[in-house]
Amino acid sequence: MNIRIYIPLLILLALAGFANASPSDTLTVRVLGTAEDARFEPRVLQAQPGDVIRFEVVEGLHTVTAYHPQNRRLLRIPDEAVPFNSGMLTAGESWNLKLEVEGVYDYFCLPHERMGHAGRILIGEVNEIPNYPAGRIPGFIIENLNRDTQLLLN
């Protein structure tokens, strides 16, 4: 049996597999502000399962923390999802997050949450906003997230 015949065939099959695979994207969220002006830009981001979301800290000291009991907050991410917390990040640093479970992920910055520094990631096909509990989250944060989500979905 001549192996040289099979090598090109194996290469073609491998290339065909790569052509059909859907590569993940890297999306960027800028983390800005130092006090009352602290914010994620964009506040609401739509991505696909497996996409990498890079949080780039432009100024200040911030976290990217999931609303989850593990982070001492009520659950505002999909039940099956793994909670996340970047730890403290400073200007010039970045942190990558890869989400696999479809759904709505709400997150916040620990030092600036009460000032409205929160964001939302929509993974996969999201048609409506879940009725997550508010708990101690200021009402204006939820209103801003829901407004920006509706604008994105419409």
Describe what you observe in this structure.
- Helices cover 21% and strands 28% of the residues.
- It is α+β, with helices and mostly antiparallel strands and 154 residues long.
- The strands form three sheets. A four-stranded mixed sheet has the order 2-1-4-8, with no helix packed on it. A four-stranded mixed sheet has the order 3-10-9-6.
- The longest helix is centred in the first third of the chain and has 18 residues, at 3-20.
- It is globular.
- The protein starts with a helix and ends with a helix.
- Mean pLDDT is 88; it is low at 8-22.
Main attributes of the structure:
10 strands; 21% helix; 154 residues; four-stranded mixed sheet; alpha+beta; 2 helices
* Helix fraction by DSSP (H/I, runs of at least 4): 10-25%
What string gives the helices and strands in order? HEEEEEEEEEEH
Task: Please list the strands of the largest sheet in the order they lie side by side.
Answer: 2-1-4-8
Contiguous low-pLDDT stretches (5 residues minimum) are 8-22
User: Shape from CA axes?
Assistant: globular
Q: How many beta-strand segments? A: 10
Assembly of the depicted chains: single chain
Q: What does the largest sheet look like?
A: 4 strands, mixed
User: Rounded to an integer, what's the Rg over CA atoms?
Assistant: 19 Å
Number of helices: 2
Structural class comes to alpha+beta
Query: What share of residues are in beta strands?
Result: 25-35%
